[in-house]
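Ticket #4471: structure export looks truncated?
Reporter: QA, pipeline team
Priority: medium

Steps to reproduce: submit the single chain below to the structure queue and open the exported record.
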Amino acid sequence: MSFQAYLDTIEKKTGLTPRQLLEIAREKGLGQEGVKAAEILDWLKEDYQLGRGHGMALVHVIQKGPNISSKHVGSGGMHNDDSAVLWLDGIATKPSN
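Actual output as written to the record:
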């Protein structure tokens, strides 16, 4: 599953866009340097019932921002994405490819 597909599924499961979840994480102090992935995963599991795979996609966005490695773009591999920048503003506003 691509990183973007994980984020889109998170939105479908939670009703919140990735950007909204990013803001909530920041409000909770989970966007600060030094916060462990496990802390973020625990929050996502407890509050939104998200599993590790989906949670790790959001951990990436919280800790590193929306840019992903270009090695995933057009790779045809497991995490194949169309762009090196993840769309965080929701499925309904995503530009057409």
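Status: closed, not a bug. The export was complete when the record was re-opened. Leaving a note from the reviewer for reference: The CA atoms of residues 7 and 58 lie 7 Å apart.
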